[in-house]
Write a structure and sequence with these properties.
- Strand 11 and strand 12 form a beta hairpin.
- The longest helix is centred in the last third of the chain and has 17 residues.
- The N and C termini lie close together (11 Å).
- This protein is of the alpha/beta class.
- Helices cover 22% and strands 31% of the residues.
- The protein has a seven-stranded mixed beta sheet. A six-stranded mixed beta sheet has the order 1-2-3-4-7-8.
- It has nine helices and 15 strands.
Length: 285
Amino acid sequence: MRISVINTGNFKLDGGAMFGVVPKKLWSRTNPADQNNLCTWAMRSLLIENGEKLILIDTGIGNKQDDKFFSHYHLHGDDNLEKSLRNAGYSKDEITDVFLTHLHFDHCGGAVHWKNNERTILEPYFKNAIYWSNKEHWKWAIQPNPRERASFLKENISPIQESGQLKFIERNGQFSRSVFPNMDVFFADGHTESQMIPIIKYKSKSIAFMADLLPSVGHIPLPYVMGYDTRPLKTLNEKSFFLNFAYENDYLLFLEHDPINESCKLKKSDKGIQLDTTHNIIDFL
């Protein structure tokens, strides 16, 4: 097995939205905001070479939206999906599987692109890959509630289903086996319905791809829950359970959105679960 970090670029989101009811005086200690109260966030994917499978977890925001859309998110940095795959030694046509933790645009936008220069036909970016979601979340995304409608973009979702490349991972409780060897899935419902958190077994280590259950090290304290979450109290309980479980099982937590830290480990004190160490994931492994 080989693991590669795929950086797809940075964007900005409102700091208050990212930390919910927590005062700026507190969250800005780890995530300082600019003059418009916007904080920088990474869009970091993970590529796993596992036997004959080349599995990409999440795809970033992509590049097919118009300038007006991107003006809201202030994309910046030198990285993009195609460049990072190439730097890792792969092409998009070698990807066999795309695992989508959930279908918010900053996690699945790179899964679909324009087929023609006229920008009239959309198709899956990874033509040889199976795209993996789950039935509960897919239904939630194609029949979006008003709160999440702006995050579930039809152009990111419909072309995958229409291509015939879509398959579903079956949910059996909160923990389920995935379709891949050495990977389990934790299902979390606080951020959005049936978000999937893959847990990868690598040698003697376990790596949890935290997606939006834990966007950054700044979100480790339990009350630090995003304003975007549909069920914030559920997120708090899921995060409490999973962070304790991760500590007890010595997980390395891969951070999709942390602008500085790729991954971290946890410790427990009389104040509960806290950040212990941060790591460049490849050096750590």
